[in-house]
Amino acid sequence: MGLAGLGLSARAAATVWPGVFRAPAYFTELWVALGVLAFVFLSFSYVLKLVKNPKAVREEFSNPVTIGFCGALPVGMFLVAGGLGPYFHLIAEIIWWAGYALLLAFQVWALSRWLAGGIELAQVNAGWLIILVGGIVAPGPGIALGYAEASRFIFGVSAAAALPLMALLLYRAVVAAPLPAPLRPSWFVLLVPPSLIYANGIALDSSFVFLEVLFPSALILALALLLASRDFLKWPYGPAWWAFTFPLDALAYAAARYAQDHPGPLWKGVCGATLLLATFFVALVLWKTLRSAASRPA
């Protein structure tokens, strides 16, 4: 998600910064290609895990702490489809529709699990946004592939879930015990709803100008999250660090959309700054991941 998302955000920024973030070119397509490769590798690895250890997979889909992150697969498929669309349209369509069906199925399952009750407040986490609100990612690639109405449907389902879930997560952040340091990056997922409900909502219907009010709130939230995470380099590295990446990609994508609609040096600068911020975190987390993988015993 973080790799392909950065490529798609850079494509959007290329219209604001022509000649700097060129698309398709050295910067944008590098991250798209890395995202596609990561998707293929991780998908193959997870199929092996499903075959060899189906009990662990069932636990991930039933545990309130981990169930939200299961939505990363279909959301990643949307992004990969967006990356491949200009080159392999049919393959992109197949991947997009597969992600669409999977996400709807996962959303129904997650809702049924939560409605069953018995979940402690400490188990509520920002990963829930991925599975329940992930459909707001679909319109970006979906419109380009020619599926605006299908995109509108899953966007509506997911956008409707954003407000109550954001309220629940903020309540959990205020009153419950702080997340352990390795999981704190997951709070950055809070950036995705205001960023993409604005950017993709406007893309679905240009008359939804009222959604523009979400972008300034996303900027303020990003500043608050960065301030709260100012000592993040001291946090122990773990897979949750990837939660830094895609939300910042989403913010950069929204900034590019805002700069397109509001030409001027201020918003052009915000677009460039958010993309550079996203690039820094994606590169940092990728480097830490590769270093961690290389240091493991064979």
Report what the structure shows:
The chain is an all-alpha fold and 298 residues long. Helices cover 68% and strands 0% of the residues. Helix 1 runs parallel beside helix 11, helix 9 crosses helix 11 and helix 10 packs antiparallel against helix 11 (245-261).
Mean pLDDT: 90
**Uncertain residue segments:** none
Compressed to H and E, one letter per element, the order equals HHHHHHHHHHHH
Question: Given the helix and strand composition, which structural class is it?
Answer: mainly alpha
Largest sheet: none
Q: Roughly what fraction of the amino acids lie in strands? A: under 5%
Helix content range of the residues, please? 55-70%
Q: Indicate the radius of gyration in whole angstroms.
A: 18 Å
Total beta-strand segments: 0
The CA-CA distance between the termini, in Å, is 27 Å
The geometry reads as globular
Number of helical segments? Answer: 12
